[in-house]
Amino acid sequence: MGKKGKEAARERREQRRREVTLLRALPYEPHQRWWDSLAPRAVAVVTGANRGIGFEAARQLAQHGLHVVLASRDAAKGQEAAGRILAEAPDEASVSVESWQLDVADAVSMQAFAAWAVETHGGIHVLVSAFSSPYLPHVPVIRFFAFTY
């Protein structure tokens, strides 16, 4: 497959991803958006957010108005994923994301993240765990919705 073929395939995949995203979008009514009442924004942490289902979860949470922390083992990949989410946003004010290097298998990394989350955001409201553990110890979870994939 030549360069044009690869580019065409990539464009088809992106178009299909956009179509599937539209089909999966949940239309929330204002009274269903509990996170809008939180000031300044509800904080969602998504582990494994640099690719796959973690990335898609982070992207959709950000589009619904939550502040999303993309946690990934590789800091560069996490920053690149955050950049992709920001690039898709209609305007910068509508989406709020940041990345954090987090290795969930490393206790020191987990403790550093927990301290940072408490200091920076006062805790987290939503945790989407795209790895096998359904919780982050030592982080006050204000409103806990854990999704483990």
Number of structurally distinct domains: 1
The CATH topology annotation reads as Rossmann fold
| Spatial sequence of strands, sheet with the most strands | 3-2-1-4-5
CATH class category name: Alpha Beta
| Proportion in β-strands | 15-25%
* Uncertain ranges: 140-149
Classification by helices and strands = alpha/beta
User: What's the Cα radius of gyration?
Assistant: 16 Å
Approximate helicity band: 40-55%
Number of strands: 5
Mean pLDDT: 81
Task: Return the CATH architecture.
Answer: 3-Layer(aba) Sandwich
CATH 4th-level superfamily? NAD(P)-binding Rossmann-like Domain
Main sheet properties: 5 strands, parallel
User: What count of helical segments does DSSP give?
Assistant: 4
Distance N terminus to C terminus? 34 Å
The H/E string reads HEHEHEHEE
What report would you give on this structure?
The longest helix has 22 residues, at 3-24. The relative contact order is 0.15. The chain has four helices and five strands. The chain has helices at residues 3-24, 52-63, 75-88, 107-121; strands at residues 43-47, 67-72, 96-101, 126-129, 146-148. The chain has a five-stranded parallel β-sheet with strand order 3-2-1-4-5, with helices on both faces. It has one domain: Rossmann fold (3-Layer(aba) Sandwich). The model is unreliable at 140-149 (pLDDT under 50).
Question: Any descriptors?
Answer:
149 residues, alpha/beta, Rossmann fold, 4 helices, disordered C terminus
